[in-house]
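From: lab user (bench 3)
To: helpdesk
Subject: output format question, protein + magnesium ion

Hello, I'm new to running complex predictions and I'm not sure whether the block I got back is the full result or only part of it. Here's what I submitted:
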Amino acid sequence: MSSTSGTVAEIPAELSPAQLVGMLRMMLRIRRFDQRALELYREGAMRGTTHPYIGMEAVAVGACATLRPQDRITSTHRGHGHCLAKGGDPRLMMAELLGRATGYCKGKGGSMHIADVDAGILGANGIVGGGIGLATGAALAARLARRDDVSLCFFGDGALNQGILHEAANLAAIWKLPVVYVCENNQYAMSARADAFTSVPDPAVRAAAYGFPGASCDGMDVLDVYRAVGAAVARARAGDGPSLVVCVTYRFMGHHVGDPLNYRDKAEVERWRARDPIERFRRVLVAQRILTPAEADALGAEVEREIEEAVAFAKASPEPEASALEEDVYA
Ligand SMILES: Cc1ncc(C[n+]2csc(CCOP(=O)(O)OP(=O)(O)O)c2C)c(N)n1
Ligand SMILES: [Mg+2]
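Helpdesk reply: Thanks, we reran it on our side. This is the complete output you should expect:
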């Protein structure tokens, strides 16, 4: 694990300059997408709610950078970052947030139901821990089909004590399934602090109880996440079974857009904001001469245009017809 003082893990030799720049671009894309989603919500353009991933970008990007296109992920209620990092289309995502017929769920699902099975995105999930069984099942499906695909399951610290994690982790260990459990420990579940509801300070130690490896990494450092998750993915792909990777991170915004945020200490928030994963990675790439500051700025502007294009696409799209109300409804 890299230190928390602002240093960043060494750049892995297998990552090319283009891949590294792609990782920074993806982190910027995720941040801009969720900033725009917040603005759209506040101006009344979006119904339902949205859970910003802002501050946690290094986790989705570092983890998904270790995957192949055919690998699968399961996501959470805070899922926009995972979806983008695995190759989701920001235009179809934004259209879904605005309830448009061109959205991923034809405008009828909203933020917490976005899925793109072709891209290996088995869905956001409004149920805390809801992706754990799905990811484990997808790993079993890959095994039965004799494919060497890996499943990667994102879940929060709030899901650590859900019974399904115990059931699935045990079965995955017994069957040596190719699944990686990635816990995004942002230290809060709504307004509850993780240290008040989880019995151990480092949940990675729980993996020992299942007989598979557990590791913690710096979730504010995209390269440390890449390293830790990469080792677990390689192990899964080689047929050696599951792992747990805990990424220690922080959400900069409230739990959802309407959160009064009256339960966190200001100094704590400032401490974490000083470790902004995007600023840190940008500094590394500039210091390593992979990007000039001007090129990094241009990347930000490029992403901004791309997200504005997604917003324009969504706003220009029709709402679903009333006659489509019962289409794609299963129960
Ligand atoms: C089974 C279940 N219980 C409770 C909720 C209500 N709920 C929604 S989000 C949330 C907190 C989740 O915290 P965490 O897993 O740490 O994810 P984070 O919001 O921090 O990303 C809770 C309790 C729910 N959606 N599903
Ligand atoms: Mg949490």
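A quick orientation on your result: The chain has twelve helices and seven strands. Let us know if anything else is unclear.
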